[in-house]
Amino acid sequence: MPLDPQCKMLIEMLAPPGAPTMDQMSPVEARAMMRRMTDIRAGAGEEVRKVENRKIPAPHGDIPVRIYTPEGGAPLPVLVYFHGGGWVIGDLETHDASCRALANLAGCLLVATDYRLAPEHKFPAPLEDCYAAARWVVENASSIGGDPKRVAIGGDSAGGNLTACVALKARDEGGPSFAHQLLIYPVTDAACDTASYRDNAEGYFLTKDAMVWFWNHYLRDRSDAESPYASPIRARDLRGLPPATVITAEYDPLRDEGEAYGERLAAAGVPTRTTRYDGMIHGFFGMTEILPQAKEAMRQAAAALRDAFAA
């Protein structure tokens, strides 16, 4: 279907003609730009019963996390959430509104993870932090009012990549096990050569040039691209992974690789539901104050989590 008119308006606001593009910026400049965009994209966010900032231990130093506790009696199920931003930008603040909404709708504790960013900390540092955070949550869930037997992982874009890779790493290293993996327009392959990359290379907010810029900052060298812990679609075997929800957007360079990963999960016997949101652009999931489709996708994600926690 055609590009949604509200998405077109957002693109004109967020990326006006003549403005510097992501790939023309330094990482510091790009991080500042994303923070400025946050209020336009997501608004202030809704109330949650309790929000706590704390640090948790990890092999390479403490990791900041933000724990969102909705209404409901303990122990609550838990979602460990990894923010997007190409492994280079994004933080707890840029995804605060989405985390609030998802915690409330899913009725779960949500532990947002502020992992180390590239290029200061290249692959596999962000993955190591996210895996450590997921392990910590399972091992310490009861101390924060959570149920260690009902822990899911999820994230958007690069956070979707980290989610898929944490799931692979946990399977390969003997745990922990997760109830679900929520993959919101996930990055799954460093090749950047699908039809959706060609069709949506520019003009739809996230560009091919920006994704190449992200990958170049994230990887130590191109050989890292072959690792399934960077490009999860290159894993030889996807059996034994947690059930998955995959959400994609029609006008997104990442559309085809996300859908291909969903197909491979299903072919490996992993219960998987893949949904494309027509007319939408990359990043739409966090735009619930503006886009009805974002609210629909948020409800879908929350329903998938509730079903997984009830299983």
Average of pLDDT: 96
* Cα gyration radius (Å): 18 Å
Total separate domains? 1
What is the N-to-C order of secondary-structure elements (H for helix, E for strand)?
HHEEEHEHEHEHHEHEH
Q: Choose one word for the global shape.
A: globular
Q: In which range does the helix fraction lie?
A: 25-40%
Strand order of the largest sheet: 1-2-4-3-5-6-7-8
CATH first level: which class? Alpha Beta
| Gap from first CA to last CA | 36 Å
- Major beta-sheet overview: 8 strands, mixed
At the third CATH level, what is the topology name? Rossmann fold
- Total count of helical runs of at least 4 residues: 9
Query: Low-confidence stretches at least 5 residues in length (pLDDT < 50)?
Result: none
Proportion of residues in extended strands: 15-25%
CATH architecture type = 3-Layer(aba) Sandwich
* Estimated structural class: alpha/beta
The CATH homologous superfamily is termed Alpha/Beta hydrolase fold, catalytic domain
Topology:
Elements: H1 5-14, H2 27-42, E1 50-56, E2 63-69, E3 76-82, H3 96-106, E4 109-113, H4 125-140, E5 146-156, H5 158-172, E6 181-184, H6 195-199, H7 208-218, E7 244-251, H8 255-267, E8 272-281, H9 292-310
Helix pairs in contact: 3-9, 4-5
